[in-house]
Design goal:
elongated; single chain; mainly beta; disordered N terminus; 4 helices; 7% helix; signal; 8-stranded antiparallel β-barrel
């Protein structure tokens, strides 16, 4: 199915997060910032992936003195959450000795270190002074941890809330070479489309309005090219003047992906042009994605609002209640 079919008025279900926002940090950038980096806490999914080597890591009885961690919710050096990578000899000096890599999830609060989860990994990791990749992913109320020297394997999958503070760090003891750091924080469309007004405020504005564009608008009909677009719903929405534009605030009618639409989410934005009754339009489809490719809206002498999607040879019409 062509991409065009998917864009308008939506065809498929959608996660709350959409466009990927990916940030790459070079070793030089991290050195200058003391290994500090930042995440978008408005995102509903977050991924941090780092690849690093402890070049001074040596065998010894018990745990190595060297380690490195991805730390988040970083307040001070005495207050943060972390996932730590630390090598360990099981039976140093004996024939039964084995070298493993401990992966620990824990918290540092008030200088007190509490390990909450620990798993020891023998295969697929470098427990000496080579490079390992560590990835921490938050999604759906869970935290997943992946590790590996060449290929990532999931080692933890536990209930952990999303980070609430933007500052993160790579924390280490010993000589650490960071080869790469990647942060992914998809945009949270639902948060971006949240209206700053309450329904009481909207209704009060409409009650006192003399602007014929403002009001409650109801679905009338459509003319769509089903090879390019399909109807996402028979929408009802409020239109209110907000700053230099009009907001189209969803009220009801979503059929595709309806669970992601709640009252007063922004369904569109109309900006007046120099032509009376003609507006530049950004429309948010059922997937919460913006549509602004030559889209526009107009209100004719009969009071009919037409929303036009020329690229998709489609239009919808609404009337003011």
């Amino acid at each position: 199915m062509k991409k065009q079919i998917l864009l308008l008025l939506a065809l498929i279900s959608v996660a709350l997060c959409h466009a990927q926002v990916r940030s790459y940090y070079s070793p030089e950038e991290l050195d200058k910032s003391d290994c500090v980096f930042y995440i978008d806490t408005m995102s509903c999914e977050i991924l941090i992936e780092a690849r690093a080597a402890l070049t001074s890591n040596r065998e010894r009885y018990g745990k190595s003195s060297d380690y490195w961690s991805i730390a988040w919710n970083y307040r001070t050096q005495y207050d943060y959450d972390y996932v730590r990578v630390q090598a360990r000899n099981i039976d140093f000096g004996h024939l039964t000795d084995q070298r493993v890599l401990d992966i620990e999830y824990g918290t540092m609060h008030g200088g007190c270190d509490e390990v909450k989860e620990l798993i020891s990994v023998k295969k697929g990791v470098d427990s000496y002074n080579g490079y390992n990749t560590l990835a921490v992913e938050w999604s759906g109320g869970r935290m997943k941890v992946f590790v590996g020297s060449k290929r990532l394997e999931k080692v933890l999958d536990i209930m952990v809330a999303l980070p609430v503070l933007p500052q993160c760090r790579i924390i280490s003891a010993g000589e650490l070479n960071v080869q790469s750091l990647v942060v992914e924080c998809p945009e949270n469309r639902m948060a971006m489309l949240t209206c700053p007004l309450t329904e009481t405020e909207v209704l009060s504005m409409l009650e006192n309005s003399v602007d014929p564009t403002e009001g409650l608008w109801m679905y009338l009909d459509r003319d769509t090219d089903d090879n390019r677009a399909r109807l996402g719903g028979r929408y009802t929405f409020y239109i209110i003047r907000y700053n230099d534009s009009y907001l189209l605030l969803y009220k009801s009618g979503a059929e595709v992906n309806a669970s992601q639409w709640s009252p007063l989410m922004i369904k569109g934005r109309m900006k007046p042009t120099r032509f009376v009754g003609h507006y530049d339009l950004v429309w948010y489809d059922s997937l919460l994605e913006p549509m602004d490719d030559d889209t526009y809206a107009s209100i004719d002498g009969a009071g009919i609002l037409t929303v036009e999607f020329p690229v998709y040879r489609s239009r919808m019409r609404f009337y003011r209640k």
